[in-house]
Amino acid sequence: MDNKVPQLNIVGFLCNWCSYAGADMTGLGRNTYPSNIKVIRIPCTGRMDPMMIIEAFHNGADGVLVSGCHPGDCHYTEGNYYWRRRYPHLKSLLEHFGIDKRRFHASWVSASEGKKFAEVVKKVTAEVKDWRDNG
Amino acid sequence: MARIGVFVCHCGTNIAGVVDVTRVAKYAGSLPGVKVAVDYKFMCSDPGQNTIIDAIKKYGLDRLVVSACSPRMHEATFRRTAERAGINPYMVEMANIREHVAWVHSDDKELATQKAMKLMEMAVAKVRRSEALSKMFAPIEKRALVIGGGIAGIQAALDIAGAGYKVLLVEKEPSIGGRMAQLDKTFPTLDCSACILTPKMVAAAQDPNITLLTYAEVTEVCGFVGQFEVKIKKKAKSVNSKCIGCGVCTTKCPSKKALSEFDEKLAPRKAIYTPFPQAVPNVPVIDRTACTFFLTGKCKICEKVCPTGAIDYTQQDEFIKEKFGAVVVATGFDIYDHSNYGEYGYGEIKDVITGLQFERLISSTGPTAGHVTRPSDHREVKNVVFIQCVGSRDEAKKRPYCSRVCCMYTAKQAMLLKDHYPETQAYVFYIDIRSAGKNYEEFVQRAQNEYGVLYLRGRVSKIYERANKLLVKGADTLSGAQVEIEADLVVLANGFEPKKGAKEFAQLFHMSSDQYGFYNELHPKLAPVETAISGVFVAGCCQSPKDIPDTVAMASATAAKVCALFAKEKLEVEPLIAGVNQLTCSGCETCYNVCPYSAIEMKDKEVKRGEVRHVAEVLESVCKGCGACVGACYSKAVDLKGFTDRQVLDQVETATAPITDN
Amino acid sequence: MDKELQDLIKKLLTEKKVDYAIGYEKAYDEFSTRPAFVTSAEDTARLIFNKYCINNLGLYLTKLKKNKIALICKGCDIPTVRELVKEKQFSRENVIVIGAACDGVLDKRTGKQPEKCLNCGVKQPKGADFTVGTAKDSTTARNFNDVAEFEKKSSKEKMQFWDRQFEKCIRCYACRNVCPVCYCPDCFAQRSMPEYLNKNVDAEENKMFHMIRMQHVFGRCTDCKACDTACPVNIPLTLLTKKLAKDAKELFNYESGADMDARPPLSTYDEDDPESGIM
Fold first, then answer.
1. What pLDDT does residue C248 have?
2. How far apart are CA B100 and CA B81, in angstroms?
3. Which of A28, B493, C136, C187 is the most exposed place for a label (fewest CB within 10 A)?
């Protein structure tokens, strides 16, 4: 997709050990992706309080992405397993309140998956754009 | 009121080539609380850091934002800068406008600049809520665990022990020695592998600081740097400590069913065995899957012939749990299995062998006592074809990497063959010759010029058997001709791959691996022996394929890291940990249940005068700062220093607000 | 039935088995009841139980933590007790659960039985220490049809629906105050550092309050409908609490307050949990 999608605001919460490092790797490999995502570094997806995501949507975020280590690879052993439970529950609840499921995503990106991170961001941005353009 | 300084780095043209850094600095200057905002070519350089220090003094700053590269790169640098100027190091935030902006949004400079401004603004929002934190200290168990008894593990253990620290060296096989013990000679000096390895094995066994634990495996790991708690399974050897290593049992054992792992399955081995004659420790083990007594209940010959009564059929696997301050992982590699190469006969042609099998054939301690004969009919060989890059540099086999040693070991093997049998001819099919290393290129040249090894640049398309010969069909791309060689033996230069079970092993420590299963170092250049798990270091081929000198160097490097860690009185611990506000804690025990480190204690405590409540408390030296408790607490009583709710919320709010750039 | 109840409480108080009995008494008219806190045997005569006893008295357990209590529960209130015990808010030894057989309560706003009574399987209470009266459980099983129906709407329609609902909300916090699992000593809604929630009463802020509250009670809410009943502006909160129950069941096969041994869905995990569309 085109990397230029103006006026679309996506908040990305990336765990420090895998996904943030993976996003750094995207840069190292000079893979490009749309600039709408603004990354907030968190230690672990286990830190991800669903409240922060509700706050992000409330503040006007068009989309939210939470990304962490692959299951089994969590730097803190278990954090991403807890997140893997919070995610479907929160997604379902948000959808129930009318926050379209195209706006909220999660991914596993390891420290070596720079290319994957670019792909994930492209996909998320495209989904959010689709929601905005087509309702 | 906060007094914030914002420092925008050009990183040469890395950032400034895409992002309008002066505009970012100008925007920073307009933000509330920002007293000074400047841009500079290289913030991490000495003059760059001095710019920051001068600004701190001149403007009385109490917190900093550095808009530069990834915090994973330079957060520590700028924290130290802050400290040098008298600011608390935790009052520093970085905005990653290189990896997350300039390098990924180079296709639109305007959007990139706007995003850089936003990320900087988010960092300013976060740092406004930062609090001064002080470092904490934890004890260090000054004892190292080295996993893997190959040359890497042995070297690391010897070096750590040499510095005066205790080491436990754990090896899965019955003897230490590893892959190097299987080799005949080493390149480029052609000195005997065993001759240089055996003294090290003996030294490791005799070192009073080293405890050897062979036939043992790590099964569980908990804890963290300074305080790892490791569970080790000691597999039942069926031979107790009375053994004097006389070897009578091995000689008399009637079972010949099992194939020798050490000889790469070219020869049988007994059910009670030591892998090779120079084994350390020289104590045999009974392979219960091959032993007649364990299979049928009859035999017990070893027990009868043992002069010291060392055989113990009732021995059980035993588990021990010990504490270590640091761990060196040196678990080695496996040889690529070529059975999925159709062109080389799917591993079914007996006289197509691996490079490691050739080592065993040509070794005087090998199954043929050094005579290179065909495994199929034991005839001596005349023409031998070597094929390089088998399971290396092969995208189709999902092994695109170069195994680094195959070019060299092929040249070595071709030379050894010629040394043993001057009348033989060696052919080598190659893609490129990679011989970077001291005296390596000269070595390959010698193979070609002095030993007359014929190098053919091209791939082999087919090997088939015809009249007791192997017909090798291939292309010589330099002459453009198809070639067909009638060979007696084909030796494949099988590449390296991660040890079987490498991924599962990595999970014990929560180390990360690359897509093949080799363990990831913390930084490919600047932290090549560290892993993302502090206190766990990697040496040798479990990290990537490499030769013996590189392996030894890496092992010594891990030892230096371990010793540097142990030389400290106490361990400095990041204060970025969780804390409970007991006034708002409802005592529901959710945090206690989710904490991966058991770092939460539940207490009945007087939180207000006269009011005793059941509340949570964080054990500061145990908490690792993952924040699982924060994500789970619905009373919002737990918070994580450095990533507080206030900080994250303000980042969220800033991220979603428009830029007010005039 | 009232007599049977009064005698039982009288006995428990006389024998000093409990300090308090929490039950219902008649309020200002014959269609209303209110919670009654009885501490002496002589006082038990005011205790009643009828179809207007709609409140979930489990709420008061967290407020009287230190005492031994006899709590009068309808079958549908008992999960609340279990949930609170699980969350360490009360020790099970300190509460004597008196199950009152119930043929369904009446919502005096509508004069009808609320939906939860129509498919009730616990009219005859299960898991009580004592039970008074007898009732017949309904033959139809509890279902989530109304939630499933709502889920079919587009996200836009859902948002419009809730926006209209939360425009009515006056942020009186009655829903939170009657919720037995909303026992936090300091609710996020009233914090100022950080200010999780703006104190303005507008539809957006109101909606966020309810979203966060619903998230906080996920896997803990027993869908007792106390909030729905208490809401003075008739926001259909049951559509939310029932959604929580449905998700807990469908995503994690969990039912709040049903099984003392099952860990709450968000404070445990399984290494084989589904990936749920995580990229």
1. 95
2. 23
3. C136
Determine, yes or no, domain membership for B650: no
According to the model, what pLDDT value does residue C139 have?
80
Residue B614 phi/psi, 5-degree rounding, is: -85, 110
Give C262 to chain B, closest Cα distance, Å: 13
B361 and B471 belong to one structural domain: yes
User: Which residue among B516, B544, B572 closes a domain?
Assistant: B572
Residues B477 and B625 in one domain: no
Q: Do C247 and A89 touch (CB under 8 A)?
A: yes
Q: Give the Å distances, CA to CA, from B514 to A16, A85, B386, B509, C177.
A: 18, 26, 30, 15, 52
Subunits touching C (CB < 8 Å, at least 3 pairs)?
A: A, B
Report the length, in residues, of chain B. Answer: 662
Average pLDDT of the segment spanning B212-229: 92
- Contact in structure between C143 and C119 (CB atoms under 8 Å): yes
- How far off is chain A from B649, nearest CA to CA, in Å? 7
Contact predicate C35/C21, CB 8 Å: no
What is the CATH number for B479?
3.50.50.60
Burial B411-420 (b: 16+ CB within 10 A, else e): bbbbbbbbee
Q: How far is CA B198 from CA B192, B195, B203, B262, B633, in A?
A: 10, 6, 8, 15, 57
Nearest to A38 among B70, B107, B118 (CB): B118
Q: Is the same domain home to B373 and B483?
A: yes
Per-residue burial over C168-207, b if 16 or more Cβ lie within 10 Å, else e, is ebebebbbbebbbbbbbbebbbeeeebebbeeeeeeebbb
pLDDT at A1 over 80: no
What range defines the domain where residue B625 resides? 574-641
pTM, two decimals, is 0.72
Q: Whole-angstrom Cα distance, residue B389 to residue B459?
A: 9
Residue A2 identity: D
Closest CA to B594 of A46, A71, C214: A46
**Rounded Cα gap, residues B131 and B89, in angstroms:** 10
Minimum Cα–Cα distance from A87: chain B residue: B631
Distance CA C249, CA C213 (A): 19
Query: Closest Cα to residue A79, out of A108, A45, A119?
Result: A45
Q: What six digits make up the tokens of B571?
A: 């361990």
Is any Cβ of chain B less than 8 angstroms from the Cβ of A40? yes
Last residue of a domain, one of B74, B102, B133: B133
ipTM given for this complex: 0.95
Q: Model confidence over B264-294: pLDDT tens digits?
A: 999 999 999 999 999 999 999 999 999 999 9
DSSP H or E segment with residue B597: none
| Mean pLDDT (whole number) for B65-89 | 95
CB B400 within 8 A of CB B394: yes
> Are both B189 and B327 inside the same structural domain?
yes
C-alpha B528/C-alpha B606 separation (Å) is: 50
Residue B23: inside a domain: yes
Q: Could you give the CA distance from residue B318 to residue B400 in angstroms, rounded to a whole number?
A: 41
| DSSP labels, B346-383 | TT--TTEEEHHHHHHHHSTTSTTTT--B-TTT--B-SE
Inter-axis angle of helices B645-656 and B109-128, nearest 10: 150
CA B548 – CA B399 distance, rounded (Å): 22
Q: Which residue in C has a C-alpha nearest to residue A99's C-alpha?
A: C155
| pLDDT for B268 | 94
**Are A108 and A80 within 8 A, CB to CB?**
yes
Q: Which of C237, C53, C30, C26 is nearest to C133 (CA)?
A: C53
Asked whether the predicted pLDDT for residue A61 surpasses 90, the reply is yes
Residue type, C53: C
Residue A6 has a pLDDT of: 66
